[in-house]
Structure formats: structure tokens, C-alpha cells
């Protein structure tokens, strides 16, 4: 079997190059400074009610999601780094409006929340399209995993810095917002300088690329449920530990930090390890692990206040592994399924399903929690297991519905670079990579 190990320098180039890697780190650091505390900013700095602030933020996220189809079409015209930089600049405008909003004024804050929502929902699709364009096969999986690990590290550092500064009150919040805006601006400038686009206009559609766009209905529906795992450590675990088991909030904080550290350290190694299996099989495995972890949380709640919190810590490791496997396989699977001419729209549909899952999961979790741990954890386990069964591998004659077999002469089959227009200063690493879609 061909090795799937990448040298750090090669991995940096596969992720988008040194400048783009720096841009990702700066963007994540800026996001970590503000996003976890945007609700607090609206309540403290702008003197809005908690309900109004939260509702406004939710509406901004949902409206932001509606822009993803347009972003997908833009990407399908060949744009890559321009779209990523634009998503960052939109957030710069949002932060600038946030800083100029007088206390007690809702509509400027709502507009700022909308711009931040559009930028946050646009970025994942644009970033995935950029990395997918310059990488092939399972090198793509590793590059996307490295980008996620880097982003989580930046978010964590930014959140820690912001937490240390919160003692400064309203002034500190405004300083954090200003630092976020400057970070987004610097990241946008670096990304713009990469000047990468796909030459879709002159690349002939052959083989699978000439076929229709994949429908992926079962995959996208399952992804809505899978995405719930991304909010487990922010919503479900603290809710149960604090209100159900009456444990100290320190347990929730420790679990959240552990989750971040594990994602940063294990995302790339686990993705490389899973590359020997088909992405569809790996995605089904992620669902099985997540289902097992939800049942583990259910069992942990039965241990009571003394042993429940330590058990939650242990089960959270299993849940994090499921999250890592899921995030390392979902986007690469869609990228493998989509013909290059509709890559942007396919990735946009995935982001739409992920964003919808993230948007509704807080309401679903908080609605199930009052009915007891069986309703919460049992309901999550049942829904995830059902989703897993919908995408699990079937007989050989049906496997082509969710993942293609290797295509002779295709870029992903042989690891050859695609048709690209790359600006000055960016060097795409040509890596000997098998990139086969194992089925």
C-alpha cells in the first residue's frame, strides 16, 4: 500500500501555500477573539436584551446560509482565493459596523450580525473549494484536515486571549472587536495575494465530469444530524452537567478544552489512518462512534453527581473521535462525488446542510433535555444511527450511488495537477499520491 504520510512542507503547500496557511491562522485567531463573545458584546456594549441579541444572531446565521448557493455558482465559474478573501472582507464590514453601533440601536447590530453570518457561512465552502482545486485523492483529505486543525488551534488561542481580557469590561470587548476586524483584514490581504483560480472554462468535461451533478439527498439529510455533534460540547454537555447533575461548570470547561486539544492534535493523524478505507465507509464509522458516545453519555448520567462528571470526561473522548472522523470524511466525500464543473454548488449544498444542523441543534437539544436523559441522548443516538444506516455501504452494485470508483485518466486517479491559473508567488506542490477512491 502506498504511504499516505506527508512532509510538513508538502502539507503546507497542499493546504494552499505558506501565505494562505498564515491567513488561515490569523483569520481563526480573530474569530476566536470575538465569535464566542458576540452575545456578550450585544448585551454589555450595546445594552440589548439577551433574547433580542440571541434572536438577531440566529437570524443572521440563517440568512447567511441562504447565500451559499450563490457562492457555489461563483466558485463554479473558477473563482477560488477571491471568494475566500471576500468572505473575510464581508466580516471586516460586519465588525466595522459593530464598532460604530451606538448603545441601544438594534438595526445596525442586526446588519452587523447578518454580515458576520454571511462571511462565516461563505468561508467553509470557499476554503474547501480552494484546497480541493490544488489537491487530489486522499492528499485532499489530509490537507482539509490540516486546515481544520490549524483553524481550531487559532480559535482556541483567540478564545483564551479574549477570556483573559474580559475583565476590562465594555472597553475590552470593543478592543477585541477591533482586533478581530484587523485580523480579518490582514487575512483577506494575504489570501488575495495567493491569486488562485480554476480554469473551468478551458478544461473539457470528460468521463464522470461530463455526467450530471450528484443528488446526494441521503448524504445531505444524514449530514444535518451528524452536524449536531459539533454543538455537543457547547450545549448538550454543559446543560446536562450543570442543570442535570449539578456539577461544577469547571467540568464542562475542561471537556471543551480537551475536545479542542484532541481535534488539533489528532485531526490529521486520524484522517491519514482512515484514508485506507472508502470515505463512505469512514463516514458510516463516524456515525457508529457518535451513536456509541451518545449512549455512553446516557449511561454516565445514571452514575449521579459523584461519578457522572468523570464518566462524561471519558465518553467525551469517544465523541471527539467520532467528530474527527466525521469532519475528516464528509467534505472529501462530496468533493470526490462532484464533477469539477459543479464542485462549488455541491460543496455549498453540504455547507447548507451542515449550517442548518448547527442552527437547529440548540433548539432541538434544549427541547429534549427537560424530558430527561433518555429523550436527549437516546433521541440523538437513534437519529444518528438512522442517518448512519442511510449512508452505510451496500452491495457492490449499489456502491456507485454514493462514491465513484477510480476513473481512468482522471486527476484524482493519478494525482496529477488539474488545470489551474496560479498567481505569482504561489507554488503548488506536485505530490506523488495514489488518490484512489476505495470502494
Automatic annotation (TrEMBL):
Principal subcellular localisation of the protein: membrane
Membrane topology: Multi-pass membrane protein
Annotated keywords: Cell membrane, Membrane, Transmembrane, Transmembrane helix, Transport
GO MF annotation: an example: transmembrane transporter activity
Highest taxon, organism lineage: Bacteria
TM spans (from-to): 20-43, 55-75, 82-100, 106-131, 152-169, 175-194, 224-244, 250-270, 282-304, 310-338, 350-368, 374-392
GO cellular component: plasma membrane
Keyword Transmembrane helix: yes
Localization, UniProt: Cell membrane
InterPro entries: MFS, MFS_trans_sf, MFS_Transporters
Descriptive protein name: MFS transporter
Annotated source species: Actinorhabdospora filicis
Amino acid at each position: 500500500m502506498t504511504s499516505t504520510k506527508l512532509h510538513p512542507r508538502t502539507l503546507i503547500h497542499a493546504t494552499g501555500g505558506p501565505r494562505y496557511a498564515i491567513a488561515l491562522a490569523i483569520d481563526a485567531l480573530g474569530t476566536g477573539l470575538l465569535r464566542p463573545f458576540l452575545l456578550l458584546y450585544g448585551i454589555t456594549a450595546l445594552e440589548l436584551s439577551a433574547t433580542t441579541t440571541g434572536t438577531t444572531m440566529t437570524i443572521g446565521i440563517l440568512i447567511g446560509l441562504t447565500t451559499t448557493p450563490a457562492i457555489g455558482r461563483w466558485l463554479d465559474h473558477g473563482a477560488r482565493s477571491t471568494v475566500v478573501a471576500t468572505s473575510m472582507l464581508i466580516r471586516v464590514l460586519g465588525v466595522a459596523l459593530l464598532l460604530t453601533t451606538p448603545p441601544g440601536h438594534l438595526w445596525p447590530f442586526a446588519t452587523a450580525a447578518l454580515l458576520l453570518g454571511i462571511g462565516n457561512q461563505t468561508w467553509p465552502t470557499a476554503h474547501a473549494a480552494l484546497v480541493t482545486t490544488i489537491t487530489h485523492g486522499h492528499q485532499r483529505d489530509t490537507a482539509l484536515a490540516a486546515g481544520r486543525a490549524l483553524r481550531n488551534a487559532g480559535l482556541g488561542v483567540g478564545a483564551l486571549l479574549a477570556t483573559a481580557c474580559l475583565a476590562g469590561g465594555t472597553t475590552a470587548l470593543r478592543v477585541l472587536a477591533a482586533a478581530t476586524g484587523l485580523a480579518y483584514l490582514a487575512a483577506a490581504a494575504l489570501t488575495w495575494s495567493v491569486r488562485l483560480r480554476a480554469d473551468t472554462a478551458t478544461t473539457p468535461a470528460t468521463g464522470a465530469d461530463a455526467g450530471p451533478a450528484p443528488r446526494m439527498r441521503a448524504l445531505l439529510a444524514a449530514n444535518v444530524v451528524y452536524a449536531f455533534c459539533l454543538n455537543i460540547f457547547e450545549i448538550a454537555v454543559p446543560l446536562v452537567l450543570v442543570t442535570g447533575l449539578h456539577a461544577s461548570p469547571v467540568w464542562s470547561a475542561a471537556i471543551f478544552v480537551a475536545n479542542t486539544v484532541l481535534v488539533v492534535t489528532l485531526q490529521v493523524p486520524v484522517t491519514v489512518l482512515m484514508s485506507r478505507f472508502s470515505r463512505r465507509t469512514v463516514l458510516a464509522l463516524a456515525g457508529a462512534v457518535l451513536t456509541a458516545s451518545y449512549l455512553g453519555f446516557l449511561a454516565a448520567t445514571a452514575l449521579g453527581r459523584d461519578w457522572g462528571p468523570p464518566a462524561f470526561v471519558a465518553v467525551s473522548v469517544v465523541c471527539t473521535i467520532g467528530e474527527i472522523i466525521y469532519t475528516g470524511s464528509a467534505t472529501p466525500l462530496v468533493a470526490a462525488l462532484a464533477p469539477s464543473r459543479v464542485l462549488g454548488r455541491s460543496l455549498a449544498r453540504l455547507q447548507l446542510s451542515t449550517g442548518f444542523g448547527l442552527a437547529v441543534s440548540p433548539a432541538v437539544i434544549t427541547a429534549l433535555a427537560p424530558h430527561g436523559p433518555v429523550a436527549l441522548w437516546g433521541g440523538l443516538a437513534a437519529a444518528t444511527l438512522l442517518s448512519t444506516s442511510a449512508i452505510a455501504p451496500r452491495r457492490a452494485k449499489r456502491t456507485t450511488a454514493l462514491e465513484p470508483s477510480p476513473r481512468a485518466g482522471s486527476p484524482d486517479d493519478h494525482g496529477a495537477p488539474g488545470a489551474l491559473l496560479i498567481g505569482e508567488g504561489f507554488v503548488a506542490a506536485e505530490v506523488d499520491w495514489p488518490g484512489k477512491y476505495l470502494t
